[in-house]
Amino acid sequence: MRSVPVAVRLARRNLYRRPAQAALVLLTLTLATGVFGVGMAVRGSADAPWDRVWNATNGFHVSANYYRLGNLAGADLNLPKVRRTFAALAAAPGVRAVGGPWLDLDGRLDVGSHGGYEDLTAEVRDPGRSSVDQPLLTAGSWLASDSDGIVLEQGLASALHAHPGDQVRINGHRFTVRGAAMTVSQGRFPLSLPALIWVTPATGALMRRIGLTGDGLDMQLRLDNPDDAAAFAAAHRSIETSTGHMSLFLETWRQRRADSHSDIDILAGTLIAAGIVVGLLAVATAAVIVAGRMAAQTRQIGTLKAIGVTPRQVVAALLVEHLTLAGLATLLGLGAGRLIAPHLAAASLTILGDPQVPALTVRQVAIVAGVAVVVVLLSTVRPAIRGLRHTTLRSLTARARPPRRPARSARLAAALGMPLSGVLGLRSAWRRPSRLVTNAAGLTLAVALIVVASGLRSIPNRTAITPSGPGSALSGNAVGALYDQIQVIVRATAGLLVVLGIINAVIVASFAARDSARNHAMLRAIGATPRQTVVSLVVSQLGACVLAIVVGIPLGLAVWRLIDGGDLPTVSVPVTDLALVAIATALIFTAAVSLPAWRLAQRSVATALAYE
Amino acid sequence: MQDVVLALLAKEPAHGYELRQRLVDALGPLGQALNAGQVYVTLGRLERAGLVKAKPGDQQGQRNKRVYELTAAGRERVAEWLADVSWSKVTLTDFHLKLVAAAATGLADPVALVDAQRNELLRQLREVQQLALAEPVDSPGGLLLEGVGLRLAADVRWLELCEQRWLARLDLARSERKVRR
Amino acid sequence: MSETTVLAARGLAKTYAADGVPVRAVDEVDLTIEAGETVSVMGPSGCGKSTLLHLLGGLERPDAGEIVLGGRRVDGLSETAWAVLRRRTIGFVFQAFNLVDELTAVENVELPALLVGEASGRARRRALELMERLGVAERADHLPARLSGGEAQRIAVARALINDPVLILADEPTGNLDSRATGEMLRLFADLRGRSQSLLVVTHDARVASTADRLLTMRDGAIVGHTRLDAGSPSALLRDLAGLGGEY
């Protein structure tokens, strides 16, 4: 394709001549790839730590779990049958090693001095090593037959700030902490409930005496091959039961692993969703820059024709330029991901130990690069199609649409007494509808996000979304703190997107001023005052602003309606907030548009006529 | 040719060989085609017309060794020639030589000559265009006039070029003279 | 300065800094334009003729000198005051990009009329009449992108004339036109001579320059030549042109 070397030359020339534009495109692309990159790096940062503990503890491949539901008073009549079922399961072909079955006792951990308590499960274990699920000690020592000391699950120990030798009160009775340990058999406290401790049989008997009751049984199996777990569970699906009185189910290690990091999932999901929105904003911003570039190139028709440039080559040059920037943005985004993700993930309450960003895979690189490439293609698609279809360079711009009916709206406006400059502005907006939409796109997103952010403000305090009830004196606080963190991140993202929206508006405004500089110079030559030209520009751009408000506010509200349900309370954005958003947007936008227009209008007409 | 030779003699008397040399220098590559004999023939004609005469003391010698000088009538003729701005019979070579001669002899400022000629051409062009406008559109007469106009316009462009070049040349000469001093 | 002087400029000067070196684009220029006359300005590119035109029309501020337009001193006016003045008294025709590309031809032509406050119906009517007279009425609802070079220039002239200004300033009006369109423009300028407008044309095209009554030649920012073109005996010229009259 002979276009290629010319395109490369043009691309290089453009990059040198307008470094600011290239920098802006790079910035928006990098923000999109960066947010995406961080999201992707965060997701999966819990996996390596989980695997480490799974291997170190000889974690299960399939676990069998039984819970007694309802009234726990009195003996468990199901227990013998369950034990028989478990025994049969343990003897099934394919089972290499068995841990348990262990009895689970239901108790209350006293927290604080006001009678608050946390629901607790005590797993009764033989002090010796178990061949499956031997918890990994992080402090102190494991259970011993000659001691009543208990071992806390590490998350619980962390939440209590409890060290070996400390004492905790369970059902009113003091117990000494022997150590803390990690396991993969259930998730980490406080996002996985109830709190878990390990006790010796002797301690268990003591606990029964002080009021704890048995409420379940769990057994952990290792198979010949971990990959057989799903098949094994499927083969034994028949033993699973779920009634009002009991629940018996099997879980594979992969299921557990996937469910073990809900907060990381939420964080990654939020970041990826934010990345998509930033990506959309990047498309809107890049589209404005592309439109401005096309307009500028057609003004240079003479020079370009002299070096034999066709519309196809102009578009090819643009693609080369922006795809190069996209490549750079991909690298920066991936780099940012690996740098920032560990810090974000470190706040997680579910990761077993320090987060570990998974190694970079081709798939990850492809996805992040794909995001950048899609942004570039979407913003260039319009002029690309036009460039392929037509032969004149002028076809690359958004052509003004000739009036179909004798300028009705302008006549109306004139009849209403609107000054000539306003009428001119309206005509200008009406005649280039695609430019209006492009300009409105970024601002619409920004308005929608401000609406989303103000909805966040109105979420009632976190006690409404944390587990209520007396048994969550400890976990309630922690989970609430997590929601706070997520709120902070969402708000920060919204803030970032709002800043981007403002940048987009400023870019739109400066390009609008630049595109109309020539026309305005001509208007001034025939007797329009500088102020009249500024007014006409502002009026012509207000259409984009109105469109942004009219579409952006319902869009933001729709986001809340989508999220509605689940454990979040219904969010309603007060009408005063919406009115404030509309007014603020209009004012900021008008200021953003007037300023570059005013600056340009201060030059002499001769200078403006020569403006390229 | 006659007028140029006259002009060249206006600065100082010279004999035929010198004149030929000056012409060759002025004409550049076109000068190579110049026949030595043509200069002597021209000189003979001019002498018969009474515009030049051989310097006293040389009348007896051979024609090609004689030194010629202008008569009063010759000077008059040179002055007329320099002031003449008619164009329809003039070739580009003629005009070019006029400028060269003016510069070489110092009799007139070449730039002023170009200016005067250009203004005249523009007047003629104006006439032509007015006549052409009186004609109905696309009439044959109008077509001829348009052709005349286009040629005049082209000649004006050449004259503008001449002006630029001669100005540059004179500037250069002036600065050279300053340096030499 | 006589009663009929439309424009008088004295000592006009404008200096630009090109790459740090000051360049005198216009150097102590005096000129006057009488009512109804056509003046052309010629000179090599870079001689300052366009800058001179810009100064005379208030598109650029002079560094020194004074300009008197219609008896009123105008060189110190503000941008806004100049704009209001230009509406009624000066019409511009530029080499290219004369028209606002978002407005149709007729909307472009009626614009100066609207700017002085004329009712839109009347402005539209007068614009269409003017375009009819200049032969471009059927292009009234076309956008500038759809017009040929010659049509666009004629519409620019219509726009320049709509408010009957006393002075029209034209900067290389045929610069971008082919020879046929140039011929049409020449015809147009000739038709305009019957009106009361004064016309200052900056051009490098001899055919355009020769339509003027007076020719000014510029070089290096100064006026170096001043010729009246409306002199000369016709009969001798005609004979010369026809090539009749050989050597006697």
The CATH first-level class of chain C comes to: Alpha Beta
Q: Supply Rg of chain C.
A: 19 Å
Spans where pLDDT lies below 50 across 5 or more residues of chain B? none
* Tally of alpha and pi helices of chain C: 8
The count of domains of chain B is 2
For the largest beta-sheet of chain C, the strand count, sense and barrel status come to:
6 strands, mixed
**What is the helical fraction of chain C, as a range of percent?**
25-40%
Low-confidence stretches of chain C: 244-248
CATH architecture of chain C: 3-Layer(aba) Sandwich
The CATH class of the largest domain in chain B, by name, is Mainly Alpha
- Element string of chain B (H = helix, E = strand): HEHHEEHHHH
The total of beta strands of chain B comes to: 3
Question: What does this 3D model show about the protein?
Answer:
The complex is a heterotrimer of chains A (612), B (181) and C (248). By secondary structure, chain A is of the alpha+beta class. Among the domains of chain A are: 1-46 and 261-399, no CATH class; 51-259, no CATH class. Chain A contains 20 helices and 11 strands. In chain A, strands 1, 2, 3, 4, 5, 6, 7, 8, 9, 10 and 11 form an 11-stranded mixed beta sheet that branches. In chain A, β10 (241-242) and β11 form a beta hairpin. The two termini of chain A are 31 Å apart. The model of chain A has no long low-confidence stretch (mean pLDDT 84). Chain B is mostly helical and 181 residues long. Chain B has 2 domains: 2-85, Arc Repressor Mutant, subunit A (Orthogonal Bundle), CATH 1.10.10.10; 110-180. Helices cover 71% and strands 5% of the residues of chain B. Chain B has a 3-stranded antiparallel beta sheet. In chain B, α1 (2-11) crosses α4 (72-83). The model of chain B has no long low-confidence stretch (mean pLDDT 82). With 248 residues, chain C is of the alpha/beta class. Chain C has one domain (5-242): Rossmann fold (3-Layer(aba) Sandwich). Chain C is built from 8 helices and 10 strands. Chain C has a 6-stranded mixed beta sheet with strand order 6-7-8-3-9-10. Chain C has a 4-stranded antiparallel beta sheet with strand order 2-1-4-5. In chain C, a hairpin with a 2-residue loop joins β4 and β5 (72-73). The longest helix of chain C is centred in the middle third of the chain and has 14 residues, at 120-133. Chain A binds chain C through residues 394, 399-400, 402-403, 407, 411, 414, 420, 424, 427-428, 431-432, 518-519, 522-532, 602, 604-607, 609, and chain C through 51, 54, 57-61, 79-80, 83-88, 91-92, 94, 97-104, 107, 111-112, 114-116, 120, 141-143, 145-146, 159.
